[in-house]
Amino acid sequence: MKADILSREELQSILDTQWAGKEIVCLDVVDSTNTKAKELAEKGYPSGTLVVAQQQTAGKGRRGRGWESPAGSGIFMTLLLKPAIDPDHASMLTLVAALSVAKALAEITQADVKIKWPNDIVVNGKKICGILTEMSAQLNHINHIVIGIGINVHNEDFSEELRPVASSLLLECKKRFCRAEIIAKTLGYFETYYAEFLKTENLQILAADYNALLVNMHKNVRVLDPKEPFEGTAAGITENGELIVDTLESRKLVSSGEVSVRGIYGYAE
């Protein structure tokens, strides 16, 4: 395995993409790679710009949660996009990113990598990666989208709160991996899947690949809807990225938003 170096030069030397990561901003410490990418977008940096940090001091998770980002332990990166698509379709890019990460990690680690809808990557039922997509838009025009990806690579321990649900590639696979290789492979898959997404501005072409990796596929899930929680069987995603859940009464479509989905027996299962 190559030395685990995360530098602009190392990334550029192994990237095999047309536009994703052609502009790379590599930082030792940053509050949040998403925040930095938004600043660069306002300064006119091009679509495809990649922000990578060795450490985040204020990493962001979904619904305002933090993301543990100790130095040198993981991948903390954000991809900047400026797509000419309907703003209403932008949230689906989170699932495109999840599919890209899952495919890259499966190829590199040879582990049984799965997706917990909509955008958590799990190995052995434990969360390895989180993805946060943020958008700046007007009524019918996107200024920019930033897709933040945090992958636990070399973490050897987690806080007591996270230990039941989170893990790392090191802990689950019992070996170390080259972070630059993971980033390069992820961007390669993303470039391919993003092109497919743009053809239809939905997940019609990608749904089968996504469903094949869905950890809850054909399993019982609990949908923690604040208005009305319910249980049912997950049956994959629609072309718009909604989770299909079959209950005893009917088929329901779940949009991500503020809804959380859990396996009946725990975080993923």
Description:
The protein is 25% helix and 29% strand. It has helices at residues 8-14, 33-42, 92-109, 169-173, 179-200, 207-212, and strands spanning 24-30, 50-56, 74-81, 113-116, 120-123, 126-137, 142-152, 220-224, 230-237, 243-246, 251-254, 260-263. Helix 3 runs antiparallel to helix 5. The longest helix has 22 residues, at 179-200. The two termini are 33 Å apart. The relative contact order is 0.16. The mean pLDDT is 90.
Secondary structure topology:
Elements: H1 8-14, E1 24-30, H2 33-42, E2 50-56, E3 74-81, H3 92-109, E4 113-116, E5 120-123, E6 126-137, E7 142-152, H4 169-173, H5 179-200, H6 207-212, E8 220-224, E9 230-237, E10 243-246, E11 251-254, E12 260-263
Parallel strand pairs: 1-2
Antiparallel strand pairs: 2-3, 3-7, 4-5, 5-6, 6-7, 8-9, 8-12, 9-10, 10-11
Helix pairs in contact: 3-5
